[in-house]
Write a structure and sequence with these properties.
five-stranded parallel sheet, Rossmann fold, about 325 residues, about 30% helix, elongated, alpha/beta
Amino acid sequence: MGQPIIYLYEQLKEDQIETIRQSAPDYIIIDAKRESLQVVEDDIEIMLGWDKEIGTRLLNSETSRLKWVQSISAGVDTYDLERFSEKDILLSNASGIHSISISEHVLGVLLAEFRGIRTSINNQANTEWTRDNISYQQLSLKKMLIVGTGQIGQQLAHFAQGLGMQTYGVNTSGHVTNGFIECYSHKNMSRIVNEMDIVVNILPLTDETFQMYNERMFLAMKPGTVFVNVGRGPSVNTDDLIQALNTGQLSFAALDVFEEEPLAENSPLWGMKNVLITPHISGLTPGFKTKLLTIFMQNLRQYCKDGTLAKNEIALNKGY
């Protein structure tokens, strides 16, 4: 067994790599995107980003020394969490990095709909000066249910309150969280969702959240509810979503994530006037790698000290 390796699947700048090297002098640093070195895969102990091909081999190797993976995303539903647990591999995510970007995205798509901006863009394309087809509302005083009260949900609630919105939350237990008038548990969501004007999904994908937005949930909402999904596509039953949009149970849906991506060209969603589609861009964040490195370095220093993580460790049995 050779010297342990920190495998950088996410490309970093030279000065960033040097920062890692100084904090972990006992490790070989491999930049997967720059170097063509022959890597003894079983010597990889830490991985920044997830090289699915190598990672799968390591999960199946009896001699692998892989001990920690730092994900570059907030969601970790693409990882084999059961296998991670079996092999006692730590997993941390990038939660918090995307909070402002996703919050701005949610408010942006809502303002585009509520202030008639989407329609105005179409009118401009047709050189039409008209108000006849423009409907408008105010976000102020609207009740927004934010399903997922983690760092992103709290940031969105803070921004939304700045626009005079009333923010309510849903989390696992219904525990009180900063920024929310009241919070409810997942199991009680269907009882209170009919009081909300806007429902925003920010939940990670787990067995419990898979297709939780189905016909039953949509029918529990009050007619004309606005739905925004910046969480995970498979949390929504697409056929039931389309039905709810066609019947007016949902007046509008802003969708950034889908059950299958990219969205199929023949999906009815493309042609629906009460749908705004964005190609999974809500989390795109300026300075992303710098922010990611901040989390990684906190964890790396703690890991080198005692083998634990300081920030964003995933509870493998929960998936978040």
